[in-house]
Amino acid sequence: MKNLISQNIPGYLLLDSGHGKKLETIAGVTVERPSPQAIWSPRLTENEWKKATSICIRKNDGGGSWQHRADREPQNLIIDWEKLKFKLKFTSFGHCGVFFEQASVWKLLMDESVALSAELGRPLKFLNLFGYTGCASLALLSTGAEVFHVDSSKGVLSWGKENVELSRLDSKKIKWVQEDVRSFIKHSLKKGFKYDGILADPPSWGHGANKEVWEFEQMIAEMVSDCFNLLTREKSFFFLSSHTHGVQPEALRNLMNDTRFKKEIEVGELGVKHSMPKDDRILPAGIYSFAKSIF
Questions:
Q1: Dihedrals phi, psi of 28, to nearest 5 degrees
Q2: Which of 7, 75, 113, 170 makes an SS bond possible with 143, Cβ 3.0 to 4.6 Å?
Q3: What digits encode the pLDDT tens for the residues 247-276?
Q4: Which CATH superfamily is domain 100-293 in?
């Protein structure tokens, strides 16, 4: 098992965590957000935590709201990563447009994309499912890949387009698809579309563009099976992550171990390393499985 731990991210610091919260600096703004995994006690003092100028208050229904010391949301926040630029905004769910635990995933996919493209002698065709604001899509786009980015939210697709413009990437090589992920997969299968790489970062539950219901435990097996049928018969890869409570890395290994295809499979945990000196704690942030096919 190999864990993917994100650390040393420009513009981001995980200062402390504990009592169901995390204290961060994001593009120069000190932020306090909910973090259910942080069941331990914080290490920094209460006075250090009081330095947070933006605090997310989570509601019982899963939503939330922000309290900003300046009575307004910080503006014009941008993170620079590997020559890419990601615009940040604080949303009601406590998000900001970037999941920092994914930085190690973006780097892995970039490396795999460059290596496979060189081996095949052509640019890759990549599918990003549940793509959110497009950080992974931009990472792959920067390697020369053609990217199909699928998400049911019109708002996050517009956000992703802004990130492409900020990063000065070729917007002609990325297709923004507002559609339910399962519907898009079925459409791709029907049309005979093939991809060299697939990334899927599904939520535990959600709704598609036309109110289609997504439930991880009930629907992930069929989705994974369909995704393998979308991969090219040349060498290809598939990265799947999960943030669903109770699902373990070996469960993802079993899920990805489709016997119709020979593949190498890695599984492990995702996490973020704390940034303070002598603080080696890792804040867990989900699990993953990475399959490289050998046809």
A1: 90, -5
A2: 113
A3: 999 999 999 987 666 688 999 999 999 999
A4: Vaccinia Virus protein VP39 (3.40.50.150)
Domain residue spans of the chain: 4-88, 100-293
Instruction: Give the CA count within 13 Å in the CB-facing half-sphere of 199.
Output: 28
* Strands 64-68 vs 54-58: parallel, antiparallel or unpaired: antiparallel
* Best CA proximity match to 215, nearest among 227, 204, 229, 200: 204
pTM: 0.93
Q: Is pLDDT above 80 for 133?
A: yes
Q: Answer yes or no: is pLDDT of 294 > 70.
A: no
DSSP notation for the chain: ---EEE---TTEEEEEEETTEEEEEETTEEEEEE-TT--S--SS-HHHHTT-SEEEEE-TTS-EEEEETTSS---SEEEEETTEEEEE---TTS--S--GGGHHHHHHHHHHHHHHHHHHTS--EEEEET-TTSHHHHHHHTTT-EEEEEES-HHHHHHHHHHHHHHT--GGGEEEEES-HHHHHHHHHHHT--BSEEEE---SEEE-TTS-EEEHHHHHHHHHHHHHHHB-SSSEEEEEEE--TT--HHHHHHHH--TTS-EEEEEEEEEEE--STT---EEEEEEEEEEEE--
The CATH topology of domain 4-88 is Immunoglobulin-like (2.60.40)
